[in-house]
Amino acid sequence: MATSTLARVWHSDLAWSFRTSKTALISSVLLAIMFAAAIFAPQLATQNPFNIAELELWNSELPPFWVEGGSRQFLLGTDVQARDVYSSILYGLRLSLIVGFASVILAAVIGISLGLLGGFLGGIVDAAIMRFADVLLSFPAILVALLVNGIARGILPPSQHQDAAIYVLILAIGLTNWVQYARTVRGSTMVERQKEYVQAARINGISGPGIMFNHIMPNVMGPVLVIATINLGMAVLTEATLSFLGVGMPATQPSLGTLIRIGNEYLFSGIWWVVIFPSAVLVALVLSVNLLGDWLRDALNPKLR
Hints:
Blueprint: H1 2-10, H2 13-19, H3 22-39, H4 41-44, H5 85-121, H6 123-137, H7 141-155, H8 165-192, H9 196-203, H10 208-216, H11 221-244, H12 256-264, H13 273-299
Helix pairs in contact: 3-5, 3-13, 5-6, 5-8, 5-11, 5-12, 5-13, 6-8, 7-8, 8-11, 9-10, 11-12, 11-13, 12-13
Transmembrane segments: 24-45, 95-120, 132-152, 164-181, 224-251, 271-293
InterPro entries: BP-dependent_transpt_permease, MetI-like, MetI-like_sf, OppC_N
Keywords: Cell membrane, Membrane, Transmembrane, Transmembrane helix, Transport
């Protein structure tokens, strides 16, 4: 049974499209490497860069090992606090991916639920949800994230800001990106609710929520998967932007955006490696996710087959 299932998956149109797409293959390999690096950061890092006991100040501001004055102990050099840049990137990548995945899940849950509700019920419920979505779309996403971030920080006492920073970021980014899911799911739901299987479910006495989540939702998840893939890159980039502006992850728990902000302060002092390498990893991560999302969108589009 398992073998036949795997065989069907292997010979499916989606799998064939993946195997024949160099862009998808390269992006997937690069993402797999970065995911593995983030998961196994404590094992791969040469030090815990945020444990003061492991830092030795005479190792500060060392260049990468191939530059004169560098050390093979610190492959990508160190910053002004003697933190290994390579190790900092591994830990920062982990935090960026956690925020990205969690915020995408939050946005998808909110957007799918509201899209199903509006598309299935219609009327004033649908109008209210869509008008609210239109209002959010009229503002740049980063401004909405800054607003949510500021409100959350205003509610929390200052002593809890650092501990709650990751949760505030997830909330801010998630509440910014749910609109795309809601509009897509609403449109698909309005088409699906007119089909015979929905009418049959109503005749059999299945409740509205049961029809929405058990019958309609599985049939509208294709576009949602594409949106979620592309939004992962957007979420990581939004988190990096907020952290670069100083309202994201604190210096004691830096993401890639925080590392770039810290490195930018010393860029004109000649310590270029502190900002260049985290920036390169961020670009590679976002580019790989976006390319994979573009491939998935094309592969799931029957008009392009």
